[in-house]
Design brief:
single chain; alpha/beta; 5 domains; seven-stranded mixed beta sheet; 913 residues; Rossmann fold; Methionyl-tRNA Fmet Formyltransferase, Chain A, domain 2
Length: 913
């Protein structure tokens, strides 16, 4: 390895010239400036009509000199006036983040540190401009990007750094860019500049072994599909050209581009129309799911979209008469969305936008699709997909698609109940306030109610019916009938899966309404509720819907009863009636984490939502009826823990209890489960999750993750980083950066799109947080920021930072369940010592460590007593990853395959023959 010997002091700031284009270059520009380097000039491409390149726009807004260069060379020689323009900025280093022009060596070698360039492949493999496409075409299972020192070859210069990622079977150019090449590439470019500045940037000669140069896929003849290949090779070719220019084929004699390929494992569709494809022996099949194609190996792939005669269309419509377009009738509020959309289109296309303006016909590319989707999400808080843009390319069509997306399930059949109707968050919402038992909304015995309070202003939203033990018994009896005698117990696992998928789809349609209800009832920030509270709930239902018909037992070899033989096998069976009791911090998500696995396993449910946040559970019950879930399968009984919760835990017909809440209540629940009928239980309880930050980590990343670990969902998060241990060498810098960023947190109305921190859930909890901070300060902790209720209506508590926290203090041992960062210092690199401190708690829910030392990280993961370990990240949960704690944080798992076992019993069967 050759280390750049540039003779500069470590950390010196450089004069950087950026040569490139696109949003990628614009983001690199921002990050380099943020790191303190001086960008002396941005050299980019000329305007495309009225469309200025994003790199030029961002630089111009900062007052950075911008040079729009049509060409750098003429007949292979640098154009003198362009060269002089470049030299005038006096750069120390050229950075080429996304550059499609040929840059002369007079420019490449001019700065004292020369030039670094980004390339989207693992050089020396896939040199050339179509590298990502060839990565997919050749079926690579791994890809990544390279930052290299530019030389006079094509992508042949010495390597500075590389980053890798896996290629999934259905990845496309766009998906690889969006999930890895784009975000990680931006960060890596900025890192590379810092390495050059520090004198630590290597220059590794590219090996010749494995080197390849792949041609640019610009010629039409290179984009035709070769059909005499296995289905996997055809699939790889189509997805490699999915973004641009598209894989060409002749269907019924006309040129058609194919998009949205996936390998097909299902049976032949019963209803399909044949289409002749030149070069393909078997005809294509146009069916409800797209266009089915067969490779030379007899296996098949499915294409979802076609580009025909300049228009994108669903593949399942090919060869059929065009559907008559019916204009969408819009409400006045929906019509107000159109000027906003027109502004977004105008900003991207840089032209006047009429109703018939075509997005792609006006020059938009794949990165513009990403920008369009992101801007729609930012302005309207719901997410479109790439396919929505491809299939609605004119402005009027796209506007209607956005309006329809915003409506949710307005055409669904109504369920009868006494509704609460409100106009809030610029929408009309409607939700139940009664108990939900045996498929009906009914009043509680005696008509007792609970006030549902909006924590943003402490106003009463509505009065919710309060379940009695008698109501709980009725719900359990209904669930028992549904399990023993009802349709639910008779239907196949696949039919059960279909209903759960339908339920998830309805939740998706009502996503905005659910998020709004979550915001006003629990104080969740609306944008977070969309993504996490509701978004992850939908993901959970879809994940477990897929498990319904995949729950299997096993065969076990045992000793035979000679001369006879024996067969032993196990069956996984549902338990029966299950009780669920969920907390108030993620009302809908906690319901979903438990109930989705419970129903996928075939059980029936009686569920008590948190007394202070029951409304999304009741709206969910309404959607379950619309989805076709049979009566009695789901029962929702709002009420107090001492009455309704205890009645569920002690009921003799409830055979399993899933509980999330405090350790103190968990102990009572466990005792009640034992005393009633020794019912199975799983408990997800309190936490005091340690996060350890070593001085060799990426400190900015650690700061961001630590803040998310503490302040996410205003600290009302079971795996919140309850205590942060920071190595003394970076402690002060860490605290300084945390306070600096905490001051930027926007606190306010959870329905305001700019808000990132809403009110605490209820008054008693806020008062507890104030007392918690006061006790910490009294015991010797230093209050560095926050620590008080804000002087405004509502239950707003200022994000808080406490330092100088010693191990004996109350705040070092007990959970706050609020936005309070507890920072303790540790010395040296003694991993065992800091783990001993981290483990000196009865909680064991989650943990985290930030370090670049993989050995240290793995040792931490092995020795820490926690059910979840995060390394160089935090709060990264996924529906497929099991979640649960150790020690007094409880036992049992939510999420992932393991969660199914919480709601299944194993029966062993032995027969003799």
């Amino acid at each position: 390895m050759v280390v750049a010997s540039n003779g500069v002091a470590k950390g010196q700031k450089l004069r950087v010239a950026i040569i490139g284009q696109s949003p990628f270059a614009a983001e690199v520009y921002k990050l380099i400036k943020k790191d303190g380097h001086h960008v002396v000039g941005v050299f980019t491409v000329p305007d495309n009509g009225n469309r200025e390149d994003p790199a030029a726009s961002v630089a111009a807004a900062d007052g950075t000199p911008v040079f729009k260069i049509k060409a750098w060379r003429q007949k292979g020689v640098a154009i003198p006036e362009v060269l002089e323009q470049y030299k005038s900025v006096g750069a120390d280093l050229n950075v080429l983040p996304f550059c499609t022009q040929f840059i002369p060596m007079d420019v490449i070698n001019y700065p004292k540190h020369k030039s670094i360039c980004y390339h989207p492949s693992l050089l020396p493999r896939h040199r050339g401009v179509s590298s990502i496409s060839w990565t997919l075409i050749e079926g690579d299972t791994e890809t990544g990007f390279t930052i290299f020192w530019a030389d006079d070859g094509l992508d042949t210069g010495p390597i500075l750094l590389q980053r890798k990622c896996a290629v999934e079977p259905n990845d496309t150019v766009d998906s690889l860019y969006n999930k890895f090449m784009y975000p990680e590439g931006i960060r890596a470019m900025a890192q590379a500049v810092n390495m050059v500045a520090d004198g630590t940037a290597p220059a590794l000669e590219q090996p010749e072994e494995g080197a390849s140069y792949d041609p640019a896929l610009k010629k039409k003849e290179l984009t035709f599909v070769k059909w005499d290949q296995p289905a996997k090779k055809i699939h790889d070719f189509i997805r490699g050209l999915d973004s641009s220019p598209g894989a060409l084929a002749l269907l019924n004699g006309e040129e058609v581009k194919l998009f949205g390929s996936s390998l097909w494992t299902g049976s032949t569709p019963s209803e399909a129309d044949e289409v002749a494809i030149e070069g393909l022996e078997a005809p294509g099949l146009v069916h409800a799911g797209g266009l089915l194609l067969q490779g030379s190996d007899g296996k098949r792939l499915n294409v979802e979209r076609l580009h025909v005669n300049g228009r994108m269309m669903p593949a399942n419509r090919y060869g059929k008469a065009a559907e008559k377009r019916v204009a969408v009738e819009m409400t006045p509020e929906e019509k107000e969305m159109l000027p906003v959309l027109r502004d977004i289109w105008t900003g991207i296309l840089r032209i006047d936008v009429d109703d018939d303006t075509d997005f792609f016909g006006s020059g938009a590319g794949s990165m513009d699709v990403v920008r369009l989707i992101e801007e729609v999400k930012d302005r309207f808080n719901f997410e479109m997909q790439n396919e929505d843009v491809f299939l609605a390319t004119t402005f009027v069509e796209f506007g209607e698609a956005v309006v329809l997306k915003s409506r949710g399930g307005s055409a669904s059949k109504e369920v009868e109940y006494d509704p609460v109707v409100m106009h809030v968050n610029n929408m009309d919402i409607k939700f139940p306030k009664q108990l939900f038992i045996d498929g009906k909304f009914i009043d509680a015995e005696g008509g007792r109610t609970i006030d549902s309070i909006n924590p943003a202003d402490e106003s009463v939203i509505c009065k919710v019916q309060r379940a009695t033990p008698g109501d709980v018994d009725r719900a359990v009896q209904a669930a028992k009938r549904a399990f023993d005698e009802g349709e639910w117990s008779k239907m196949s696992a696949r039919d059960r899966s279909r209903l759960l998928f339908r339920l998830a789809d309805l939740m998706e349609e009502h996503k905005q309404e659910l998020a709004t209800i979550e915001a006003i009832d629990s104080g969740a920030v609306y944008t977070l509720a969309l993504k996490t509270h509701v978004g992850m709930s939908i993901d959970v239902w879809r994940y477990f819907a897929g498990w319904c018909d995949k729950i299997t037992g096993s065969t076990i070899p045992i000793s035979h009863a000679r001369p006879n033989r024996n067969l032993t096998f196990t069956k996984k069976e549902p338990i029966g009636v299950c009780g669920l009791i969920t907390p108030w911090n993620y009302p809908l998500m906690m319901l979903s984490w438990k109930m989705a696995a419970c129903l996928a396993a075939g059980n029936t449910v009686v569920m008590k939502p948190a007394q202070v946040s029951p409304l999304t559970a009741l709206k969910f019950a309404e959607l379950s009826v619309k989805a076709g879930i049979p009566p009695g399968v789901i029962n929702i009984v709002p009420g107090s823990g001492s009455e309704a919760g205890n009645a569920i835990a002690s009921h003799p017909l409830v055979r399993k209890l899933g509980f999330t809440g405090s350790t103190e209540i968990g102990q009572t629940i466990m005792e009640t489960c034992a005393n009633s009928n020794i019912k199975k239980c799983s408990l997800e309880l309190g936490g005091k999750s340690p996060l350890v930050i070593f001085d060799d980590c990426d400190l900015e990343r650690a700061v961001r993750n630590a803040m998310g670990g503490v302040f996410f969902n205003k600290g009302e998060n079971c795996i919140a980083a309850g205590r942060i241990f920071v190595q003394d060498t970076v402690h002060d810098k860490f605290v300084e950066r945390v306070i600096e960023e905490t001051k930027k947190i926007v606190i306010g109305d959870p329905l305001n799109r700019s808000t990132s921190h809403g009110p605490q859930n209820h008054r008693a909890h806020l008062d507890k947080l104030v007392s918690y901070v006061q006790r910490g300060v009294k015991e010797g902790a230093t209050l560095r920021y926050g620590g008080k209720q804000l002087d405004r209506p509502g239950l707003f508590f200022e994000p808080t930072v406490l330092t100088d926290v010693e191990d004996h203090m109350y705040v070092a041992k007990e959970e706050s369940f609020g936005p309070i960062m507890i920072i303790s210092k540790f010395s040296g690199n003694d991993l065992d010592a800091v783990i001993k401190r981290a483990n000196s708690t009865e909680f064991g829910l989650a943990s985290g460590v930030f370090t670049r030392d993989i050995n240290r990280a793995m040792a931490f993961a092995e020795k820490i007593e926690a059910g979840t370990v995060f390394i160089n990240t935090y709060n990264k949960t996924d529906v497929a990853a099991p979640f649960g704690g150790f020690k007094q944080s409880g036992f049992g798992k939510d999420l992932g395959e393991e969660a199914l076992n919480e709601y299944l019993k194993t029966k062993c069967v032995t027969l003799e023959y």
